[in-house]
Design goal:
The chain has about 200 residues and is of the alpha/beta class. The protein has 6 helices and 7 strands; from the N terminus they run E-H-E-E-E-H-E-E-H-E-H-H-H. Strand 2 and strand 3 form a beta hairpin. Helix 1 packs across helix 5 and helix 2 runs parallel beside helix 3. About 40% of the residues are buried.
């Protein structure tokens, strides 16, 4: 018995920062998952100034019409871009799924959730503020925490804006593949089955 989400998913958002400087950093793993979805579903992404982001529409798994968005506003203003899309299409805030990086999870782990707080993530704080709710699904991709001592804030910034080491890249690749599978599971069956299948996995 499949459990359909109460509001069908319409938009999948991957969070990150624009520009080559930030490409493939830990903080941009949401962009990487979105690129993987676009490739898998053959959805072209291009700049959309109205939405302040890179955007595309097409068919996901099981002929599910979906929009993909990478906000190009910088992380802490991501919500502006997401709001522009849902206002234009008149989508419900609950029809948005957000994919982003999570320091509280080790590399090679995912956490699927139907709702929840931003947990200190500036991109999610912005999305929640602009949507006016935290009742929307999200997929968090573990990037591990920093071991650096000293100034905690500086250490966190250096960690999230750093690139993955050669040793870490296979774990990240697996996590991105699982995130794509988890999102397809949400589309087909709902959030609960995706949580059961993916929240306990370790790469």
């Amino acid at each position: 018995m499949t459990q359909e989400p109460a509001v069908p998913l319409r938009v999948i958002v991957g969070l990150g920062n624009p520009g080559e400087k930030y490409a493939r950093t830990r903080h941009n793993v949401g962009f990487d998952v979105l690129d993987a979805l676009a490739q898998r579903w053959h959805i072209g992404l291009s700049e959309n100034r109205k939405f302040q982001g890179t955007f595309g529409e097409g068919m996901a798994i099981a002929n599910h019409k979906i929009a993909l968005l990478k906000p190009m506003t910088y992380m802490n203003r991501s919500g502006q871009s997401v709001r522009a899309v849902i206002d234009w299409y008149k989508f419900a805030p609950e029809s948005v799924l957000v994919v982003y990086d999570e320091m509280a999870l080790p590399l090679g782990r995912l956490r699927v959730r139907p709702s929840g707080s931003a947990g200190g993530h500036n991109g999610m704080k912005s999305v929640i503020t602009h949507l006016g709710t935290q009742e929307f699904p999200r997929v968090r991709v573990g990037i591990g925490s920093t071991e650096q001592v000293g100034d905690r804030d500086k250490a966190v910034v250096a960690h999230v804006l750093g690139k993955f080491s050669p040793d870490e890249k296979p774990l990240v690749k697996t996590a991105i593949d699982w995130a794509v599978e988890a999102i397809e599971t949400i589309l087909l069956k709902g959030t609960e089955p995706a949580m059961s299948a993916f929240n306990g996995r370790t790469a």
